[in-house]
Structures are given as C-alpha cells and as structure tokens.
Amino acid sequence: MSPKTVGVIGGLGSRATVAFLNSVLEHTPIKSNRDHLHMIVDCNPKVPDINAAILGTGPIAAAALAASGRRLEIAGANFIVMVCNAAHVYEGELRQAVSVPFISMVEETMRTIRSDFPQCRRVGLLATDGCFRSNLYQDRLASRDLIPIVQTAKELERLMLALGRINTGDLGHAIRSEILGLIAALIARGAESIILGCSEIALVEPYSDSGIPLIDPGLVLAKATVRSALS
C-alpha cells in the first residue's frame, strides 16, 4: 500500500514550517529518496495573526485556516496537519471544513506525555499569549488529572519578546539564555516536564541541559505524521 499524502497548513510561522518538514524527513524510514512522503504544503504567512485573533485584537483567522485545509484536500491530501500550537484553538472549525482526517498537534502531545512521561504529573507550559489565555493546553492537562504549571504575566511578556526576535532570525546565545531562564522558572515552581507550546521555541539550539523532559509538539506532530502516512 502506498503511503498517504500529507497536507500541511504552514506559514504560521514559516521557519517552524520548514523545521517541521525537515523533522518529517528525518523520521521517515527510507532506503532511497523515493521513500520520502508526498507532502503538499500551504505555507501562507498572510493568515491573520493567530494570537491577535484569539485575543480579539485582530481579524478572525478561522476562515483563512479552513480555506487552507480545503485547498490541501482538493490538491489530494489524505489527511491534514497544522504547524502552529495556538492555531489549534480553531481545530473544530478546520475539521468541519474538510472531509479528510485532521491530526491534532495538541492531542498528540497529550498522548506523548502519557506514554513517554507517565511519572510526570506537574507539566509546565511555555506558550504564546493567545495559546496561553485560551487554555488550549491547560484544560487538556487538567482533564487528564495533570497539573499545569504556567507562566507569570511577566514571564509571558518576556517569552513574547523572545519569540518576536526568533521570528526575525535571531537564534543566538542571548535568546537561548532567555528561554532557559523561563524554563528554570517553571522548574522552580515544580514542573516535572515542560511543553514548548510554540513551534518557534524549538528553533533555537536544543535545551538539553534543562534537567527535565522538554516536549516539543512540532517533533511530536512530525512523528505522528510519519506514522499516519505509513499506516
């Protein structure tokens, strides 16, 4: 049986989309280039700002995301993924807009926490203001009897400033130190693992010296994409 064709809603950020595609390539078992997956990518950075849309300070983004999903389905995608944590606030609208399956980055992250880190009950969250204030991850963690450890208002402000710099290509030592400081603050409040709840966070050099498991939803989604395409 031939692998399924993957539809990717991207551009939400563009750098994170490229990183996701590379991660899919890295986790696809191949013997030659022809074994790689067929991926159709709608990388559209003109979608209304997701965080502003969620917070009510910008245009609604649901229609643009639904249109992207429909384009991918028409182009031949057998299932769809979306490379943005916060945009999963609109997961329901996207599922209604297409007839092919949608694989949720957020739900796959929840499964990974349960399967790979069952000992971790206090789960930290680094996330954008829209993702954070929508309780996208917090509600799902609580429904699984896990305790969300969240950012303070000041830490959220620091993260948003850092993400703005990452989006313009600043991936240097100062940004890494800032993210590590935010991770350390969550650990100090009892986090036993941490969700890196914005795709851009993982673009910086890996934070392997943090001391606890760091869960990258983009990597989780890439692995789930390969499994789904080959199943």
TrEMBL record:
Signal peptide: none
InterPro entries the record matches: Asp/Glu/hydantoin_racemase, Asp/Glu_race, Asp_race
Keywords: Isomerase
SUPFAM superfamilies: Aspartate/glutamate racemase
Pfam entry (one): Asp_Glu_race
GO molecular function, one term: amino-acid racemase activity
Assigned protein family: Belongs to the aspartate/glutamate racemases family.
Name of protein: Aspartate racemase
Organism: Mesorhizobium delmotii
